[in-house]
Amino acid sequence: MFALDQVAVAYGDVPALAPTLLDIGAGETLVLLGPSGSGKSTLLRTLAGLTPFTGSLRFEGQPVTDWRAVRQRLGYIIQDGGLFPHLTARGNVTLMAQELDWPAERIAARVDELATLVALDAAQLDRYPGELSGGQRQRVAMMRALMLDPAVLLFDEPLSALDPITRVRLAEELRAIFARLGKTVVIVTHSLGEARFFGGTAVLMREGRIVQQGPIADLAEHPADRFVTEFLAAEDAL
């Protein structure tokens, strides 16, 4: 789905992502792990076309030359949903479809389908973000990300701003949705527990570099260096 060859990001003279090689397969769940400032969100933003970079990035086998077209194949979700406060939940969900001149009937049918998927009702969709709970806002954000039926879902710490009970419930719902839809999923988290819960491939980062990549169990059983061991021990201690 994605192929990165020596992709790097710098803000002025400050490197944020070292030259990186990374392949993300279709239907794969990839979890980007690491401490604050490790480069995981920078890498995610690069995949979303939100950050200038050097190197080569291919999407679905082709070099990216038009991010406008690629972004229609991506669903991007940030902490607390990132919803527009002046629009209702329904308005947030349908915004891009309206921009693309979808017929009203198609929009309504898609909203009904997605509302059922994320367990929201019509009354909730007619509220503004400030009138919704954190979990409800994340469900609306999920609907918005899925509205155009993207091939890839990109999550930047989608559960970190939620209370523990809501976080567990929404994580269970997200995992079920991932399994049902079969999308390519990339999740940024600093939580080892979340990484284990969602499974798939883990990429542990430090100072803008990939330190180790593979199944979560491999990080514990075959750590690449001392940092991997220390990171896992620190996460398990919390």
From TrEMBL:
Record SMART domains: AAA
Domain ABC transporter, first and last residues per copy: 2-232
Molecular function terms, GO-annotated: ATP binding
Lineage per the UniProt record: Bacteria, Pseudomonadati, Pseudomonadota, Alphaproteobacteria, Sphingomonadales
Keywords assigned: ATP-binding, Nucleotide-binding, Transport
Origin species: Novosphingobium anseongense
Protein name: ATP-binding cassette domain-containing protein
Pfam families registered for this protein in UniProt: ABC_tran (PF00005)
Signal peptide: none
